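thread: overnight batch results

M.L. [08:02]
morning all. the overnight job finished for the chain we discussed friday. pasting input first so we're all looking at the same thing
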Amino acid sequence: MKQSRGTVFRRQQKLIKKLQDEGEIFVEDVAKELGVSEITIRRDLQLFDDRHLIERFYGGARYIKGTIQTEKVKDKIQTTNKQIIAKKAAELVNDYDMVFINSGSTAFSLLKYLAHKKVTILTNNGRAIFKRNNTEAVIIVSGGEIYERKKSLVGDFAINSFSRVTANICFLGVGGLSKEGITTYALPETAVNKMILERTEGPRIVVCEGEKIGRKSNFFTADCSMITHVITDTMANRATVEYLKDLGIDVIFVDEEE
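M.L. [08:03]
and the structure it wrote out:
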């Protein structure tokens, strides 16, 4: 049975930490400790060996000091998850839809997967101006004040842009999604995000990594009842997922299989 990307990542992180702490590991022992097969451990070690992170010997492996950088590995996994979520979200968009996309990084990844569709996209992500023109999609940037930390466009001008359009579907990246509602780390973005939700007649979709489900960020955007779908990964908090389902929200888990 294939395992989710999150499960594989957590196991590999345990292996890395064990290598760092103990200097070397033995396949038979660590397989029993982690409750997986020896073949699975050998496959993980082969991956580390291919990246020149370890030195293998018969029955085990030895840590090469200074080569394993766990934060970079984590960043790579998170970036991949954002892309998988965005790709799944793009499947819900039809040709000729009017699409709203906010400034969230996962939502922004949708531009890549909508490039071949005949849609019009309105976004307040300032980075959209750097997207290449060879796309079927028409991309409109809302304008507004630049929130430098995230390169998002906020303020009255951005809000007014969205208020004059009706969307068929929208996608929001968030800082957190919990029983307390939709939240973000940036106060100036909350008013734009709420306008996006209010001006969308069709599906209103939150796209985010599972670690944000159950998390509460600093600034409130809207109640969970304002969204219709959540697309996330299997790391999502189960209690919050059940709460969202009870509200009638369709929670979609991406296929993270290796």
